[in-house]
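Batch manifest, entry 17 of 40.
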Amino acid sequence: MRTCVAVATTIGLGAALAAVVTASPVAASDRGGGLVGSSFEAHRSAPAQARARTAAQLLSASATFDTRVSGAPRAGSRPDQQFLPGARVDISYGYHGETDVLTYRFETRPVSAGVRPGGSPPDTVAVGLGVFAGTSCTIDTVDTDITSQNFPDHLLYGSGDATQSPNAGRWDCAVLVAQSQDGSVVHDAWVSPLDVLTATPRLSVRAPAKDRLVTGVWTRVPVEVANASQEGVDARDVSVVGAGRGVKVRPAAFGGLDAQDDSEGHVWAKLVRPRATLRLAVTELGETLGRTTVKLRQRRAPAPPVAGTWSTRGVSFTVRGRKVRGFSLQTQTTCGGYPDLPTTTTNTYSFRTETIPRNNEVVGTERGNRGGDAAYTAYLELEFVSRTKAKGRFSYYGPARCTAFDSFTARRKR
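Output type: structure tokens
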């Protein structure tokens, strides 16, 4: 059973602050009329934020512009003033599935602008997102729109990623400005801290409480990882690592893990003493988020399988010199699929020669034509449960979305 746990926390930045603008020189060609790089004095520093954990993810941020910048004209005191009551900016964050780059999308709603006197040039309404520097909010990214006397209500929106705006992950303040189109006159301005919502994936790892291994042989230990985070808090770059006196461990990589999902895999362990405690940890982006332990004990190496021919329906191979040779399996293969109907054929597969370790557990991987159109990967798991009986599983992934899976029990021919 998985438990849903809300892990989002608000990094409070306080209520809206009165501020005055200390703008950099205006360039008419600059997007936003010179607002990028401008600073809005907030008369205070950004509130201290908790140190961000490596695995912490940005979810969203928001601000409501309910207080004018200090020095802006009072409501209704000038005919060219823009009225922007209760405007709000909302940011949603994400992470690119392949590059893991932080992405963002923002919008304001609504921006209600007052009508300029007849014959005056149209004004620009701009939303700026930035970072506190000392006691000022310095603008990093700006989106603009031109007001219309016929359509004074606006939705401002924009999007991008951290390669376009390196400070996107640090935004903690926002401004809303109504100004002339060339940026030479500011008619109204607001500044507000951003309330930022973050979350950390809630990962756990499960494994057998105890296991018995043949000393000196690399053996798979089954593990299960789960992400009990709320919806949308997907884990990235998930791994299970291990350590312990008397045991060597190879980690297991799971890639991404969606919220409310789990996945099974294995870590490889080699016991070098008669007993040991294997400490396992599940990590995201290298940060440990869950732990468990496995008590390992030594067991005797089983007797090797009898040499000769082994077979069952559709499967045959030879055991000789403590190796599995000439493996052959006939099974159904499924290719293609949506939007077309899949096709099914019967095919015969071979597998490379594999050494039988002292614990009688064969785990093999075969890859062919790497990077080519005919690239494939096949897996063979074969456990000799006695000297004359073996349980196996074969899987194949090939071009044209072809897959094949089969489980079998083979016996030594008399």
